[in-house]
Amino acid sequence: MDEEQSSEETSAPDEKRENLLAELSENLGEMLIDSYLRPHEDLWLRVRIENWQDAVKIAKAAGFTYFGFLSAIDWDIAPDGRYENTEFDGGLVEEDDDPVELDTSTGYAGGDSRFQLLAQLNSLDRQMGLILKADLGDNLVVDTIRDVFPGADWHERETHEMFGIVFRGHPTLHPLYLPTEFEGHPLRKDFPLLARQVKPWPGVVDIEEIPEHLEAQLEAEVMAAFEAEGGEV
Amino acid sequence: MTATSDREQMAYVTAQAADARINVELDTGDMTLNIGPQHPATHGTLRIACRLDGEQVVVAEPIMGYMHRGYEKLCEVRTYPQCTTLINRIDWLGSFANEVPFILAAERLMEVEAPPRAQWIRTILFELSRIANLALFLGDMGVQIGALTPVFFAFRDRERVLNQIEEVTGGRFHPNFDRIGGLKDDIPKGWIDETRSVMTKMRTFCDEMEDLLVGNEIFQARCRGVGVIPGDVAMGHGLSGANLRASGIDWDLRRDANPGLAWDQIDWRVWTHPDGDSFARYWVRLQETREATRIVDQLLDGIPSGPIMAKVPRIIKVPAGEAYVSTENPLGEMGYYIVSKGDLGPFRVKIRTPSFNNISVVPWVMKGVYVPDVITILGSLYFILGDIDR
């Protein structure tokens, strides 16, 4: 179990989810790598990729019969960032005096590889959701779960075309959204978002400048309102 | 032959034909019929490629992507407040309801809670979007089976609800009104009374629809027993909203997983229907629209006073973490899985839309139905194309 939950002093312990975690850890045994619990919110379980199908089956047997979604996360940092440094958009962040520090962890319940599989299931009896994760190795192959949840069929097709993950045993892994001859996997972080590179971002270039004679007045108003509220952000 | 025996002759011919089919194995051949992309029943540009054997569907495969806009990718390069502009355009008939789960997910990561007044107004606008969205369905379902009158009633009365949304937010379809920590503005003066009278009119509208369609013999003949989805199939495909409840499954996120809006403070009920056919889906949505007007009435009575915005920094940075929040939108379970790295914008957003899962049942449910029923089933599943393609 994670240490984080003890630091949450705001609310009572979430017995419902702790019991579920204990039950599922026992059923999953070796398949479970790590878990994370946000009290009264959600439970994350990271399982071994070889046991992905079994883990989903075990969760289904434990009452999680409602299929939410299946997707993936690419934990790489995009080489172009958020395209703020293109020639058009330079200067968007200069007013932000607090530099952004990117978190380098790979999410709740950890992760060891670039791509992580993600699935959400619900239990109607327990009135709880469950999020399953699995690290994808270098070969990006995983067993399909469309026999367990028929709804996963399309989600796997979408994940296949967007991330290039292969679902072993899926009979129709052809593109769902993209044209048949499309090359690349758009939701990977290294796939460039061309629209942002060739066209100015209107959110930056269309800013109307405040007239000089109004600027001081506006500033004073904002400061007055700010101080009236106690001067705290 | 005399005229009186025409019927006999007809019976003879039919019997002959039936015999021929059995004996000669009359080959009806495979035919591919494309329904859409520009079919009115598809609410956008969805194509259903049906392989037919005679009048019966052998395989039906929805083909989408005509409107894929890549919102999950676009969200990654925008800041949180900029994302809501995109999110408005997912289910364009119930826009405000789209913003709420995204904002709630961001608020959960920031550990900010909107003040009670903001929560109540959010809930009211949420239910108003539901009424506006479902009103169109209630009329549109008539068009799918050839009844043109209801849809005009629907457009007329939906306008009243849109006017109320416009009066608060300034936008009829894309309000972009929800903010992290609260709402952009308070409700205008006199709005509560106006909304109350609109709710009375919407109840009349529901009664009209009930008289026009639910009791109608043709409507019943076209919808009862057509497109039956059993409960376990619905669960496995992740169907949500009225489609799930029409299959007899009592699951409503407003009641069962309330993420913090005002639904748990008022008295209302969840409607289900055991049949799982097209008629049940219509009936459940009709009752839901009615229930929503009652919810709005109660909420209007009890709006708490106070601020509409919590204290949030001017530049919004969401702490690192992951959150999945879903709400019961007009179409079903709409959820956002946000991965934050402490930046100004989300690192990854997975948008779980109701229509995507709802339509994934089409290949299963269409097997063996007749061509005219394809349209009623599609209509009764009720999807918005922006909600499938994102």
Protein model, in words:
Chain A has helices spanning 4-7, 15-28, 52-61, 152-163, 194-198, 202-205, 212-228; strands spanning 32-38, 42-47, 66-74, 115-123, 128-135, 141-143, 166-168. The longest helix of chain A is centred in the C-terminal third of the chain and has 17 residues, at 212-228. Chain A has seven helices and seven strands. By secondary structure, chain A is an alpha/beta fold. Chain B is mainly alpha-helical. Chain B has 16 helices and eight strands. In chain B, strand 4 and strand 5 form a beta hairpin. Chain B is globular. Classes of the chains: A alpha/beta (233), B mainly alpha (390). Chains A and B meet through strand 3 and helix 4 of A and helix 2, helix 9, strand 6, strand 7 and strand 8 of B.
N→C terminal distance of chain B: 63 Å
Query: How many DSSP helices of chain B?
Result: 16
The overall average pLDDT of chain A, rounded, is: 76
Report strand order across the widest sheet of chain B: 1-2-3
- Using only CA atoms, what is the Rg of chain B? 23 Å
Largest sheet of chain B: 3 strands, antiparallel
Oligomer designation: heterodimer
Tally of strands of chain A: 7
Residue stretches of chain B low in confidence (pLDDT < 50, at least 5 long) are: none
Distance between the termini of chain A: 35 Å
Give the C-alpha Rg of chain A: 23 Å
Which series of helices and strands of chain A comes N to C?
HHEEHEEEEHEHHH
- Find the count of extended strands of chain B (DSSP E, 2+ residues): 8
Helix content, binned percent of chain B: 40-55%
The strand order across the widest sheet of chain A is 1-2-5-4-3
Look at the structure and give the mean pLDDT of chain B.
84
